[in-house]
Write a structure and sequence with these properties.
The chain is built from 15 helices and 11 strands. By secondary structure, the chain is of the alpha/beta class. It has 2 domains: 230 residues, no CATH class; 244 residues, Carbon-nitrogen hydrolase (Nitrilase/N-carbamoyl-D-aminoacid amidohydrolase, 4-Layer Sandwich), CATH 3.60.110.10. The longest helix is centred in the N-terminal third of the chain and has 23 residues. It starts with 7 loop residues before the first helix and ends with a helix. Pathway: Protein modification; lipoprotein biosynthesis (N-acyl transfer).
């Protein structure tokens, strides 16, 4: 394992570079700061001794994830008198855990004798692979991937071909070019990095122009289907209060019943505080208010199992298709070894019934008919996993994300979550409808553009035509295989050079 840790003073610049790099993510969206900070960081890592690379990368990763994941304290402040003391520990260990996904790959990449240029490239390759692996290891958490700095810019359109992992590859390529093409010199002079900086700017310009060309192409005509998204502005600290939950339920009914044409009404995740099995008297009331098919977030029970579900309520209050969330949040929606833990009273943080939710069967496409295109549902956290878009047999016409972003506070978490939904739309070439309890609800087209939205802490509705889908994207057909193959080839070239 890594030894001889440098002094904290020597690691402070790396921590600062990680913080600056994280400014490319929402709500800051200063992508230029990210590219420059990552370029300086890779140069520093290229000059570091192999036995200190781990620590330099750990410090940088701690800065990146410390800022990017700072919203993690907000769930613990919903009931501060009970959970507030955990908040600083949650942020510290989340940042440290994320930092290990930078430090360990960097350390592994620099085993053996490498020149400083090859060391920079090896670390960049390792970080790309690490970004991909974070979406899978320990059930996955692909939040704050490096390539997410481009969401909202034309460069994000590249995700239709190379996905989120490919955006990380592009970003690290832009960042490593100044070091890779630096002129040999013992002195640290800015002129050394001119060739690589020019190459990096040219690459950014080329990919930006390609994205602009894609955005300039006409989209297919929207569907005639009118979708109403209802946002009740249910604050998390009040959501399950018996008095307030009745107020929020009335809001859902009243907003759903407002005048205006609609073919489908959508309520957010866990929109109501009662179980589906206890709602028989209320289903006709909800159906009448919607005056159209209603998709609602609700908890349901089967025996001793509880599910976080989306349920369709058809005309006449008859139940239609049911979708159960299958990718649950560890410790939030379920506890590992939950059946055993339940016996000693340990339950999931966010589950309101039982000791935690049980997972559903997996991704699926739901058919409603009645001139409503088939759709793939995603409940909250599921929308951060691009692999779920490729796990269905039939291509849907649109994506639906029902979420409860009230857990994420109001500063960065909800906006990062929204941007990842935009990225899913680009990757799949599908429009995405987003229904949130407190914001941000949105209609997102197949190129990731937000057509209309309801911001944080707003109460109201969105009535909008359903945007049309684009043809199946290259990424949907091939996934991350091309990018991973390219990184494997580059990694093999580095390994061969190391042996010679």
């Amino acid at each position: 394992m890594p030894r001889r840790r440098p002094s904290l003073l020597r690691l402070l610049p790396d921590f600062g570079l990680g913080l600056i790099a994280a400014l490319g993510l929402a709500p800051f969206n200063v992508w230029g700061a990210s590219v420059i900070a990552l370029a300086v960081l890779l140069w520093r890592l290229s000059r570091a001794q192999p036995h200190t690379v781990f620590w330099h990368a750990l410090a940088a990763g701690f800065g990146w994830f410390g800022l990017a994941m700072s919203w993690i304290i907000d769930p613990f402040l919903v009931e501060p008198e009970v959970y507030g003391w955990m908040a600083p520990f949650a942020l510290f260990f989340m940042a440290l855990g994320g930092a290990l996904f930078w430090a360990l790959p960097a350390w592994i990449a620099t085993r053996g004798s490498l020149g400083w240029r090859a060391q920079a490239v090896a670390i960049a390759i390792a970080l790309v692979v690490s970004d991909w692996l974070r979406g899978w290891i320990f059930t996955g958490l692909p939040w704050a991937q490096i390539g997410q700095i481009w969401i909202g810019t034309p460069i994000a359109q590249s995700a239709a071909w190379i996905g989120a992992t490919g955006l990380s590859f592009l970003t690290l390529l832009m960042a490593v070019l100044p070091t890779l093409l630096a002129r040999p010199s013992e002195a640290i002079k800015a002129s050394r990095f001119v060739p690589g900086t020019i190459a990096s700017i040219m690459l950014i310009g080329a990919v930006w122009a390609a994205g602009m060309a894609r955005l300039a192409a006409p989209l297919p005509a929207d569907h005639q289907t009118i979708i109403r998204v209802v946002q009740p502005n249910a604050e998390q600290r009040l959501k399950w209060d018996p008095e307030w939950s009745g107020i929020f339920f009335r809001r859902l009914l009243d907003i759903s019943a407002e005048p205006g044409s609609r073919d489908l009404v959508i309520w957010p995740e866990t929109a109501v505080n009662f179980l589906l099995e206890d709602a028989s008297d209320l289903l006709p009331v909800m159906s009448q208010a919607a005056d159209a098919p209603l998709i609602m977030g609700i908890q349901r029970r089967e025996g001793s199992r509880y599910y976080n579900s989306l349920v369709t309520l058809n005309a006449g209050a008859s139940l239609g298709p049911v979708y159960d969330k299958f990718h649950l949040v560890p410790f939030g929606e379920y506890i590992p070894w939950g059946d055993m833990m339940a016996k000693i009273g340990i339950s999931a943080f966010a589950a309101q019934e039982g000791h935690g939710y049980s997972p559903g069967t997996g991704p699926r496409v739901i058919q409603l008919g009645q001139n409503i295109p088939d759709f793939q549902p995603l409940i909250c956290y599921e929308a951060i996993f691009p692999q779920h878009l490729r796990a269905v047999d039939d291509r849907p016409g649109w994506l639906l994300q029902a979420t409860n972003d009230a857990w994420f506070g109001k500063f960065s978490g909800p906006y990062q979550h929204l941007e990842q939904a935009q990225l899913r739309a680009i990757e799949a070439g599908l429009p995405l409808i987003r229904a949130a309890n407190t914001g941000v609800s949105a209609v997102i087209d197949a190129r990731g553009d937000i057509r209309v939205s309801l911001g944080m802490s707003q109460q109201g509705k969105i009535d909008a035509q359903l945007p049309a889908a684009l043809p199946e994207t290259f990424w949907i057909r091939w996934g991350n295989a091309p990018i991973l193959l390219l990184t494997a080839i580059l990694g093999a070239a580095i390994a061969i050079r190391r042996r010679t």
